[in-house]
Structure formats: structure tokens, C-alpha cells
Amino acid sequence: MKYLVIVGDGMADYPIEQLEKKTVLQYSATPAFDRLAREGELGLARTIPDQLPPGSDTANLSVMGYDPLRYYTGRSPFEAASLGVDLNPDDISFRCNLVTLSSEKPYSDKIMHDYCAGEITNEEAEILIGEIKKHLGSDDIDFHCGFNYRHLMVWHGAPDDWQLTPPHDISGQKIGEHLPGGTGSLQVREMMEKSFDILADHPVNRKRVEKGLNPANSIWIWGNGKKPLLPSFHDKYGLQGSVISAVDLVKGIGLFAGLKMIEVEGATGNIDTNYSGKADAAVQALKSGDDFVYLHIEAPDECSHRFETENKIKAIELIDNLVVGPIRSQLEQAGLSHSILLITDHATPLSLGTHTRDPVPFVIYRSDDPVSNPSRKFDEASAAEAGLYMGDGFRLMDRFIKPE
């Protein structure tokens, strides 16, 4: 049996007035999703415990079968692993976003205009993070260039007392009430304020402004954590497998779980990602000996953070048309016995622009044991009506791989 998890990040939503009071999943044309729902085991899973922040970190840990209450130490250590940064026991890592702030003075009066700095390119980001490292790095603090707007700061021997806010949670808001708090917050605030002076008039940003693009004029520090210890996926489930994702966070969780990384050309983490390339890579991995593939697609979540309703619909329909449908066809043509878990890791409602703890729809389809529920669709309401509820979302992987 081959096992494939397909995660549409942030697909779940609330009913929207302009979409005939339907959710995006209900409104979108998703024949491949719905076929799985008709022929599989449909339900809702609670992937994020009340005690933890509703993020892709805690949610994807759950989906991959790890209890976040036991294994979660913070977001950025997973991203550090993806970048090849090995943390020492006394290191604290932080996510370091390149963001676009407004020009008000003082710094605390600025507004979070764009949490991802207009999707700044890797080439531009490398130059800007190099400037940050030159001016703000020290014997105790290192900066590492990541991907796009997502980067890393590591503080050796840092205090472990922080109150930090994800920048995508405060789009359009004044930053003053959301600046870092905790034991080392003054030093971090000073670095963030200095970063504006370093970056605002940098040639890279001057060129971006001339092109009508948002400048990456500040860093934003958040997502602190220490190095976690996860049991290997193979030890838990007896399977060898891989992760396909454009997001360092998900790659890092996979690396800590002992899974391989499959890089796909053109995978961006945005709506322009290489959907077909990801689908083909997943099928090829399963044909070539992998027992398990975790395929993660970020696009719907990014659209929600930007309040882009039409693009979120488009992203979901592209996942259905270019990923789920072709994967199923290719696995059937190859004669491979397979199980598919289709899930959204967490809800990211367009009305809020950020993540919530709402239970999310999932379906488990088994090619050797299909069922028939003709009226079912893959959406929040149909999943609730199905009556299957996984209160501990991390146990869903047990149900998927070791069915009762």
C-alpha cells in the first residue's frame, strides 16, 4: 500500500456573502476533491489544541502524526532545519520576515502594509539580508537567508521569554501594540528599528519602488523556538517517505521526522507554484520506492492572508485540477494500491486574514476499499454532516496508516 497526504494549506474558511453565503470550498469547482469525498471516509479533524497558537507549524505537526502539545517548541527551529542550520541546546531561533512598513515616525506608529514585501525575489532578499547581517549581526546573533520573504535569526544563549506577533496577523494595523515583548525585547526592537534605516533607501528597494513594487524596508522578528526532538516517521509507522513543499517550515518538520526532501522546479509557495510538477514528483516517488509522500501546497493560505477571494478560489481549483485528479489517475494507471488523505491543515478565513482553530475537513480514500456516498462533497458542511470527528488531530495519521 502506498500512502499520500495532500495538504491544501488554509483552504477551510467561513461562509462569504459575496459567494452566495458559501465557503470557498463549497463555491469552488472541485470534481476531484468531491469524488474522493464520495468514495472515502469524510470527517472533521481538530489539528490545533487550544493551548497553542493556530499556525501552520502546530497544524502540520498534527497532520503528520505528532502531538503538538508534546513536540512543539516554536516555529522557526523547523525552518532552521530546512536551511541546514543546526541549533545548539541554548540557541533560540526566530523567523525574520522582510516586510513593508509605512513611513510614519516614530517606528511604533508605522503600519504593517505588507507582511511579505510584495513577494520579494530570492535574489533581492539575499542582498538585503546580507546588509542586515553586516550591520546587525554579532558574536551572539546570526542572520541566515532563506526563501523569498522568509528568513532566520539565531540568538546564541538568548533569553527564553518572548511575546511575539506574526506579521500576517496585523496587516493594515499600527505595529506599536504588536512589537516584541519579553526579556530581550528591547534589543530586538532596536534591531527592527535600525533595519528600517538600513533598508528603506537601499538600492534594491529604490528599484522596487520605481517599478511600483512594495519595498522590503524592515525586518520583523517572530516565531521563536528551541530545537525539538521528534521520533522518526519510520519508527512510528514503519514507512519510508518524502516531503514535497516550497515552505521551509514544512520541509523542516519532515527533516526532523527523518523524511527526505523532494525539490520541484518552479515550486514557489504561492498561486504561481508548479502544481503539475509537484503532482508528478509525488507519483514518481511512490513508483520509485517511497511508501509515503507528504505533499503540501501553500497557495490558498497566502491568498487568504492577502484577502484575495478570487485567487483563493483559483488556487483551490488548480489543486483539484492539476494535483488531485492527475495523481489519482496516474496511480490507477500504474496499478498501485494506494490510500490518499486530503486535508486542509487549518482554516484561514478570508474575513480575518489569519489562521483559526476551527476543525478542518479531511477525507481518507483507499483504492482497495472504496465506499459510496453519492451526496457528499469535500467541504466544511458536508464533513460535519458525515459525523466523524477527530478531536485529537494528530491521531488522524494513525487512522490513515493503521486503520482500526
Structural summary, described in words:
With 404 residues, the chain is of the alpha/beta class. The chain folds into two domains: 2-72 and 229-401, Alkaline Phosphatase, subunit A; 85-225, no CATH class. The protein is built from 15 helices and 15 strands.
Give short descriptive properties of this protein.
five-stranded antiparallel β-sheet; 35% helix; alpha/beta; 15 strands; 2 domains; eight-stranded mixed β-sheet
Please summarize what this structure is:
This protein is α/β, with parallel strands linked by helices and 404 residues long. The protein has two domains: 2-72 and 229-401, Alkaline Phosphatase, subunit A (3-Layer(aba) Sandwich), CATH 3.40.720; 85-225, no CATH class. It contains 15 helices and 15 strands.
Q: Mean pLDDT score, rounded? A: 96
Instruction: Give the distance, in angstroms, between the N- and C-terminal Cα atoms.
Output: 16 Å
Order of helices and strands: EHHEHHHEEHEEEEHHEHEHEHEHHEEHEH
Beta content comes to 15-25%
Q: Which descriptor suits the 3D outline?
A: globular
CATH superfamily of the largest domain: Alkaline Phosphatase, subunit A
Low-confidence stretches: none
CATH fold-level name of the largest domain: Alkaline Phosphatase, subunit A
SSE blueprint:
Elements: E1 2-8, H1 24-27, H2 31-39, E2 41-45, H3 56-63, H4 68-71, H5 76-82, E3 91-101, E4 112-114, H6 122-136, E5 141-147, E6 150-156, E7 162-163, E8 181-182, H7 185-199, H8 203-210, E9 218-225, H9 233-237, E10 241-244, H10 248-256, E11 260-261, H11 275-287, E12 292-297, H12 299-305, H13 309-333, E13 338-343, E14 360-366, H14 380-386, E15 389-390, H15 396-401
Parallel strand pairs: 1-12, 1-13, 2-15, 10-11, 10-12
Antiparallel strand pairs: 2-14, 3-4, 3-6, 3-9, 5-6, 7-8, 13-14
Helix pairs in contact: 5-10, 6-7, 11-13, 12-13
